[in-house]
Amino acid sequence: MHFFQTCKGKVTSQKAVPLAAFLAIFISIAANGQHELVVEVSNIKNQEGNVAVALYNTENGFMKSPFQGKSLKAAKGSVEFVFQDVPAGTYAVSVMHDANENGKLDYRTSGIPKEGFGFSNNALSKLGIPKFEKAKFEFTTKTKIQIALRYIEPHRKKESEP
User: Fold this and answer.
1) Is 21 helix (H, G, I), strand (E, B) or coil?
2) What is the pTM (predicted TM-score) of this model?
3) How far apart are CA 83 and CA 70, in angstroms?
4) Are 45 and 97 within 8 A, CB to CB?
5) What is the mean pLDDT of each run of 10 residues along the chain (162 residues)?
6) Domain segments of the chain: what residues?
């Protein structure tokens, strides 16, 4: 049995070809897994509708032009979203519980959201949407972030209130 075999003047290893193929597959699988962003959304009030996640990669595109987006059926408690092959960089995430499945976050006449919402870093703002700066995070390899949805219940007057 010959370890080396000559093919058209070139010397190749019969064992090197399968080894190279195995290494190429292994490196490919490892590389794909390294650029995975997992977004765990918790505090989902009920299983009505969908939970939608938007991933933003620019400050100018924040809340306007998502880099990627996903939607899953809502489940009371939590759901996980997996974004594959995400390049290293700066990102922000927004989440909404679209309970009535109309594709948007609904608001009361007062401007307060009727449905659950959240942002990466659990960023908040006193008025409206937080700035990209508050929600941004650095992504380099496999990362898991957690976002707890917020639901703002309307203020109800007590019977003794005018």
Assistant:
1) helix
2) 0.75
3) 9
4) yes
5) 41 52 50 79 98 98 97 98 97 98 94 96 91 97 96 71 52
6) 4-33, 36-148
